[in-house]
Specification:
This protein is an alpha/beta fold. The protein starts with 5 loop residues before the first helix and ends with a strand. The chain contains 18 helices and 15 strands. Catalyzes the attachment of tyrosine to tRNA(Tyr) in a two-step reaction: tyrosine is first activated by ATP to form Tyr-AMP and then transferred to the acceptor end of tRNA(Tyr).
């Protein structure tokens, strides 16, 4: 459909919308005045990854259109565990681990949305503030009575686990109820009328909107994004080497930039729409030129949003110097007092988790020193040497 509100028109034109409840009513509300919407992020690890970026960018577009975004830190829901897309229960974390993860995660949002006290300034809340104060029997009477087990069994998060004959604990089964309660609580506290999330959250989101209607008699809406995959079918957020973290203490700026630079040709235009602020006209112009230049623009724009313009420019300069035969400032470094073996160098630079893994990298022909393939694990590398693992990871050996 053609949307009247700038917010939904932007999401539609850039490829964000998969499912939407009562699109016409939401579009009218967003066109008539400011609305408040939220997305929740559980604290299962010390950082979010690029698979979360689609959701974060939706909050950015919501605010850019004059509306108020709420970032919900899942201090409470993390204690329950979201069964969506999982064959097994997530490991249960203690309060200290959840608090540490939350403190680390929350910094990622500061570059994407503006927090403050203004009408459209972003708000960050922790759902543990209300979930951990719930009394069980009153909660069952007030909230639980609105949920049908028959319907809950049809939701993908439950049905797929049962179809695969994988166990689903009663704790996990309650996740959709506590997430729905989050939406109700946010509606009561902030007038929140929109929940957004990935397509795997559709059942949970619809449950929350329905709960608001039943308990408060007010209308609320849900919006989900499609599952974002690369052209080769792999999920965003994952690589062969593991998760692509947003936090720089888990992934250096240069590595983050380089991952975007290595985007498949078929994905560049789509990722420019999803993961940068470039207008559609600017994207058309970028795509009309050289594809490698377009990839560099994607990498620099995406890195600037997440890590800052200075980090993005430094990574781009490093790449130009490195692949032109030089050595850039932003490359990972390993300081040594004297030459070390290629195995120690690979481990020291973080390209291998152990000497055994480094040995396999050398045996497989994936290690290079100053551009030359290494076939002997006893090769020594001293200060000034450039070590590469595969085609995408490069580091410098420097003197202590």
């Amino acid at each position: 459909m053609t949307f009247a509100s700038p917010f939904l028109a932007t999401l539609e034109s850039r490829g964000f919308i998969h499912q939407l409840t009562d699109a016409g009513a939401l579009d009218a509300a967003a066109a008539e005045g400011m609305i408040t919407g939220y997305i929740g992020f559980d604290c299962t690890g010390p950082s979010l990854h690029i698979g979360h970026l689609v959701s974060i960018m939706m909050l950015r577009h919501l605010q850019a259109a004059g509306h108020r975004p709420i970032v919900v830190m899942g201090g409470g829901t993390t204690k329950v565990g979201d069964p969506s897309g999982k064959d097994d229960a997530r490991p249960l974390l203690d309060d200290a681990a959840i608090a540490a993860n939350m403190a680390s995660i929350r910094t990622a949002f500061e570059r994407f949305v503006v927090f403050g006290d203004g009408p459209s300034d972003a708000v960050m809340v922790n759902n543990d503030d209300w979930l951990s104060t719930i009394s069980y029997v009153p909660f069952l009477r007030e909230i639980g009575r609105h949920f049908s087990i028959n319907r809950m069994l049809t939701f993908d998060s439950v049905r797929l686990r049962l179809d695969r004959e994988q166990p689903l604990s009663f704790l996990e089964f309650n996740y959709m109820i506590v997430q729905a309660y989050d939406f109700l609580e946010l509606n009561r506290r902030f007038g929140c009328v929109l929940q957004m999330g990935g397509s795997d959250q559709w059942g949970n989101i619809v449950g929350g909107a329905d709960l608001i209607r039943r308990v408060e008699g007010r209308q609320a809406w849900g919006l989900t994004t499609p599952l974002i995959t690369r052209a080769d079918g792999s999920k965003m957020g994952k690589t062969a080497a593991g998760a692509v973290w947003l936090n720089r203490d888990l992934l250096p700026d240069f590595d983050y930039w380089q991952l975007w630079r290595n985007t498949d040709d078929r994905d560049v235009a789509r990722f420019l729409k999803l993961f940068t602020d470039l207008s559609l006209a600017e994207i058309d112009g970028v795509m009309a030129g050289d594809i490698n230049a377009a990839k560099v623009r994607l990498a620099t724009e995406a890195t600037a949003l997440c890590r800052g313009q200075e980090a993005a420019d430094a990574a781009a300069a490093t790449a130009a110097a490195t692949f032109g035969g030089g050595a850039g400032e932003a490359l990972p470094k390993f300081a040594v007092a004297e030459p070390v073996t290629i195995l120690d160098a690979l481990v020291g630079l973080g390209f291998a988790a152990s000497k055994g893994e480094a040995r396999r990298l050398v045996a497989g022909g994936g290690a290079r020193v100053d551009g030359e393939a290494v076939v002997d694990e006893g090769v020594m590398v001293g200060p000034g040497g450039k070590v590469s693992a595969g085609k995408k990871r490069h580091g410098l050996i420097i003197a202590v």
